[in-house]
Automatic annotation (TrEMBL):
Keywords: Methyltransferase, S-adenosyl-L-methionine, Transferase. PROSITE patterns: SAM_MT_TRM10 (PS51675). Gene3D superfamilies: 3.40.1280.30. GO terms for cellular component: cytosol; nucleoplasm. Residues 1-97, 281-307 are annotated as: Disordered. S-adenosyl-L-methionine-dependent guanine N(1)-methyltransferase that catalyzes the formation of N(1)-methylguanine at position 9 (m1G9) in tRNAs. Probably not able to catalyze formation of N(1)-methyladenine at position 9 (m1A9) in tRNAs. CDD domains: Trm10euk_A. InterPro entries: MT_TRM10-typ, MT_TRM10-typ_sf, TRM10/TRM10A, tRNA_m1G_MeTrfase_euk. This is tRNA methyltransferase 10 homolog A. The keyword Ribosomal protein does not apply. It comes from Tetraodon nigroviridis (Spotted green pufferfish). The lineage of its organism: Eukaryota, Metazoa, Chordata, Craniata, Vertebrata.
């Protein structure tokens, strides 16, 4: 089913309605259908199995969430103890090893948005900033084409933005700042699958909250500008019950997580909001899944360029 992109800064919780479930691992008696062919029966059994394991998957998701919560609590406690031992002085949250990767949020779509969506974009950028500040490998973060309603929102709602550290706000379009050959536009409509990040490239995220009204716009712009483009390799690792158009902050967070873990799969599962219904490709139901994009071509980079 097609749903809108996650355009609010989304929490990672908040899955859909509770489901009526049987106990974990409890199997339903296989239903026999005398009129079905062997192949159809096999498919049906697979589907039944998929249904039966729903509760287990749900439990696994809960466990992962719980693990993350515990990890955060442990970290907060350690920081507190460290701070006490340090005579009350705060220390940086963790040792950061900055990445040389450059990530741009292209805000040249300002006139296509209503103020309420510009405010959402503003929140998403705030979230990117906060995440980058805490990241193990913070990227070189740029916001380009800053002006119009977005600047107005920032001036009104968050005057402190002028003091944000380790990031660059520019009024210029990214094409005025970076050579064309260095650019890769990230867009879900690209036929190219991003396999690895190339630290010599500049990755661009479209600063757009459009509720799918401007489908394919960033792809079109990249094509017109003769810029390389790629989509995140979501379809290689996850099946989702919705479209694979993500919000700016989710794309940003996935990239940071990939830089830390070196695995797209891990990055997708820890960042994708639960309502996207992401499940591992290997565990996806037979013939099911929301992503019907045709096979995309991989962009391959030599392994030594991996972060
Ligand atoms: C809400 S989307 C905007 C969708 C818009 N209709 C477009 O044409 O890109 C915000 C941005 O996140 C990035 N993005 C979202 N999903 C992506 C995906 N699956 N792969 C790569 N980039 C993605 C793109 O840069 C996109 O412009």
């Amino acid at each position: 089913a097609e749903v809108m992109a996650d355009e609010n800064v989304a929490s990672r919780g908040g899955a859909g309605p509770e489901e009526q479930e049987r106990a974990p691992g409890q199997e339903a008696a296989p239903r026999e259908h005398p009129n079905l062919s062997k192949r159809q029966m096999k498919k049906l059994r697979k589907q039944q199995k998929w249904e039966e394991e729903r509760e287990l998957r749900k439990q696994k998701r809960k466990d992962r969430k719980q693990q993350r919560r515990l990890q955060r609590q442990r970290q907060a406690k350690e920081e507190e103890e460290e701070q006490e031992a340090n005579g009350g002085r705060k220390r940086p949250r963790r040792e950061a090893a900055p990445s040389s990767l450059r990530l741009v949020v292209d805000c040249s779509f300002d006139d296509l948005m209503l103020m309420k969506d510009v405010r959402k974009l503003h929140k998403q950028i705030q979230r990117c900033y906060a995440i980058n500040r805490r990241a193990a490998h913070p990227v070189q973060f740029y916001v380009t084409s800053l002006g119009g309603q977005l600047k107005q929102s920032m001036d009104e709602k968050d005057k402190g933005w002028v003091n944000w550290k380790d990031m660059s706000f520019r009024a210029e379009h990214y094409s005025q700042l970076v050579a064309k050959e260095e650019l890769v536009y990230l867009t879900s409509d690209s036929p190219n699958l991003l396999q690895q990040l190339d630290l010599h490239k500049v990755y661009v995220i479209g600063g757009l909250v459009d509720h799918n009204h401007h489908k394919g716009l960033t792809f079109q712009r990249a094509e017109e500008g003769g810029i390389q483009h790629a989509q995140l390799p979501l379809s290689t690792f996850v099946r989702m019950n919705s479209r694979k158009v993500l919000a700016v902050n989710h794309v940003f967070e996935i990239i940071l997580e990939y830089l830390e873990k070196g695995s797209w799969e891990e990055a997708f599962f820890s960042i994708l909001p639960q309502r996207k219904g992401a499940v591992a490709v290997a565990a996806a139901p037979p013939g099911g899944g929301g992503d019907s994009t045709p096979e995309a071509e991989p962009i391959l980079h030599p392994p030594e360029q991996r972060p």
